[in-house]
Design brief:
binds 5'-deoxyadenosine; 5-stranded mixed barrel; binds iron/sulfur cluster; alpha/beta; 19 strands
Length: about 500
């Protein structure tokens, strides 16, 4: 686990250290002094709410923000009517941005009622200059804004915002830094995300990620393994290795290492039972990785392999660097080698210039590969990306028709795939008490818990909170389309 520093041993009267993470711990100690004053004045701990938009990377970043808030003495709460609210934003599609603006409007009302409330914004959306301009003019009640590259400085920025008058903005264009050993507050006791790399070098023409998350940087394998060993010792049984393109892990390290090699090392960690990873770019997925997955007892039977489009013409325009045939060959090879694997994907509908014929090519891939699940997205024009400047943007009505058609095929295929496993027995990690069943007023109804299978499907089984965090054998009695109803086998 992290080698955290003890705040009680930090000398606050000397100047802040220059090196990291010592500098951030110094500022955590300073923030804690502020929190102590708050407690003596108000007779209670200050509350903090971290709201996450977007992907697993952001979810992990939010755990780091919560780790720092907790370390300095905040009580973390889920209500946004808190003393400190931070939105960790996403900008991959425009609807994510719109949701942030909507929610900010609500915060304005809360702040009117509690004028000492502090509001912070961070994450991908903040890396866009036009967003900062809009917040400056339309949301002047925001106190602190920072971006993706300097999130490790959160303690320092929090401290500065206690002292600042008006809006404090700190955005970096890029970074080559990775700061280790900062506190993390995990959402789940038994599973955890682990960043193995940051940024992306692929520049798919529709995607804003390389502009807001910067160039690809891999963490040192020793740091990753040390973190996972610590987590396993702390009761974590499942890890999700996170990166925009995990298949290019390790290329730029001083001592280069492949992703497959890293997985072999993670596999050896005692106590760890399951390994997942996200996301794989098809152009970089090696035979060695397929072999490691096949031979592994711990790597889950699930591969998320974004297709984006099945049309060679569109794939070229998207700068994906594979053809439909190459994708299909790869997916079918994986299915041959690992027959019980689930392959899921991302698909974009309405990329500039996409015709109904192009979409048919995509649908053809869905039918051939038989995706176990697919996330379908309507193309969103992201300022600054090459695709945004393309002239042949597709009319909304055509996109809508195509999207609905694709969605139906995707859902039918996923349902067919799920039905294949009905009646079988497999392992599930029980993740939580099923909320609906725990709320049920009819007490004769059984309490259910929700488990995740190795192939990422969900199963609900009778059981109680004592099962949470345990890997149990379940029979998948009834397939309900996208989840199963099952029972625990002793
Ligand atoms: N419009 C629509 N979907 C997008 N994605 C990335 N950028 C865009 C965009 N501009 C989708 C891709 C990616 C997923 C995380 O988000 O399918 O795999
Ligand atoms: Fe975006 Fe492509 Fe990088 Fe994925 S691989 S984050 S879609 S640029």
């Amino acid at each position: 686990m992290n080698q955290e520093m003890d705040l009680d041993k930090i000398e606050l009267y000397s100047a802040p250290p220059a090196e990291e993470p010592a500098r951030q711990y110094y500022f955590m100690a300073k923030c804690r002094e502020w929190v102590k004053k708050f407690i003596s004045k108000n007779g209670r701990c200050p509350t903090a709410c971290v709201t996450t938009f977007g992907c697993q990377m952001n979810a992990r970043d939010s755990e780091k923000l919560e780790g720092i808030l907790k370390k300095v003495g905040y009580e973390t709460v889920s209500s946004e009517e808190a003393d400190f609210v931070i939105f960790n934003t996403c900008t991959v599609r425009d609807n994510a941005n719109q949701r942030v603006y909507g929610r900010l409007g609500e915060l304005k009302g809360y702040k009117r009622r509690n004028p000492s409330m502090k509001i912070a914004l961070c994450g991908c959306m903040m890396q866009e200059p036009s967003v900062i301009e809009k917040i400056r003019t339309s949301y002047p009640f925001v106190d602190l804004i920072f971006g993706t590259h300097n999130i490790y400085k959160f303690a320092e920025l929090l401290c500065a915002s206690f002292e600042a008058e008006g809006m404090l903005i700190d955005i970096w264009k890029d970074t080559d830094r990775i700061v280790e050993d900062l506190p993390v507050q995990r959402k789940y006791a038994f599973k955890s995300g682990i960043n193995i790399m940051f940024g992306c070098n692929n520049f798919c023409s529709y995607c804003i990620v390389p502009y807001v998350r910067g160039r690809e940087r891999s963490r040192e394998p020793e740091d990753i393994l040390r973190e996972i060993r610590g987590l396993a010792a702390d009761g974590v049984v499942e890890v999700m290795l996170l990166g925009q393109n995990v298949n290019s892990y390790g290329r730029n390290l001083k001592n280069p290492m492949t992703f497959a090699e890293l997985l072999r090392e993670v596999e050896k960690i005692e106590g760890l039972q399951r390994i997942r990873f996200m996301t794989s770019h098809p152009k970089d997925l090696s035979d060695d990785l397929i072999r490691v997955m096949k031979e592994s007892r711990k790597i889950c039977r699930h591969l998320h392999l974004p297709l984006q489009s099945g049309s060679d013409r569109i794939l070229k325009q998207m700068n994906r660097r594979y053809t439909k045939e190459q994708y299909v060959d790869l997916a079918l090879k994986i299915r041959r080698e690992i027959p019980d694997i689930a392959i899921t994907t991302d698909i974009i509908v309405g990329f500039p210039g996409e015709t109904p014929e192009d979409l048919e090519e995509t649908i053809d891939v869905v039918r051939t590969v038989k995706f176990d699940n697919a996330f379908t997205f309507i193309y969103s024009r992201r300022t600054g990306t090459p695709a945004a400047a393309m002239e042949n943007q597709v009319p909304e009505s055509q996109v809508k028709t195509g999207f609905d058609k694709l969605l139906k095929v995707v859902q039918d295929t996923a349902r067919e795939q799920a039905a294949k496993y009905e009646g079988s027995v497999c392992e599930a990690l029980i993740e939580e008490v099923n909320e609906e069943s725990s709320r049920a007023e009819d007490t004769s109804r059984q309490m259910l818990v929700t488990g995740r299978l190795s192939n990422n499907m969900i199963v609900h089984v009778p059981g109680d909170a004592s099962l949470v965090g345990k890997v149990v054998r379940v029979s998948l009695d009834e397939c309900k389309g996208f989840y199963y109803l099952g029972t625990i086998r002793e």
